[in-house]
Amino acid sequence: MALATALPPRSDIAKRDIGGVGIAALTREAALGLLDEAIGGRDHVKLAFCNAHLVNLAAGDAELRRALADFLILSDGIGVDIGSRLLYGESFPANLNGTDFIPALLTMQARPLQVMLLGGKPGVAERAAVRLAQDHKAHRFEVLGHGYFMPAEEPGLLLRLREARPDILLVAFGNPLQERWIAGKIDIRHASVAAGVGALFDFLAGEVERAPEAVRQMRLEWLYRLWLEPGRLWRRYVLGNPAFLLRMLRIRYFGRRSAR
């Protein structure tokens, strides 16, 4: 892929500490370029998409913060943008939510890729794989398993993954399970890019409806999801969003330690 500017090494990527999570300050093109390099060089990148919810989870969990330190973490949603404006005086260069970013990554790849899916309820990953295959005909998609496997099944899943060694592994367990699992189980032997993708399979399979484009443009997709699934998401948004904002204000005015 031709890029207008040279890409920095991953160790030199500018990051912004948002509540203890180092989120990369990258444009969409630069983030896609870094992953393109990793895939082309058969390197290894652990990829996460950080929204206000993940910051809230990590703020009180030192083990999770340590695990996330090994990830390329991209900004996802208006919450972390607000945090960036409060702490750094400007928004992130782009909103890189996984639901839009992963299809963009697949679209820009000229080389045919092998992509494996793991997670979701039984049957959901299969429907998501069919949708991905329809939209991205150059690539091959295979389901590794659903997200409710038994502990005794895990060694077999990891062995299959090592034997296949896909270009991209998509893991949909939800936060923070998917990030913990990738951090603890996945390395360069298993995939070039291992990405925690949250609800992506549900959206692709039609299990959950995405917000209309106008709502997404207003950065209110979280509100639409709350309207669709209030019983499951009210804690994340009704309690979590004010807690996140308060945490950002405490960091700004009283220092980082008081925000945890």
UniProtKB/TrEMBL annotation:
InterPro entries linked: WecG_TagA_CpsF
Annotated Pfam families:
Glyco_tran_WecG (PF03808)
Write the record's keywords in alphabetical order, separated by commas.
Glycosyltransferase, Transferase
**UniProt superkingdom:** Bacteria
Query: A single GO molecular function, which one?
Result: hexosyltransferase activity
Coiled coil region boundaries? none
Question: CDD domains from the xrefs?
Answer: Glyco_transf_WecG_TagA (cd06533)
What the entry lists under PANTHER family is as follows: PTHR34136, UDP-N-ACETYL-D-MANNOSAMINURONIC ACID TRANSFERASE (PTHR34136:SF1)
Q: What is this protein called?
A: Glycosyltransferase
Query: What organism, scientifically named, is this protein from?
Result: Bosea caraganae
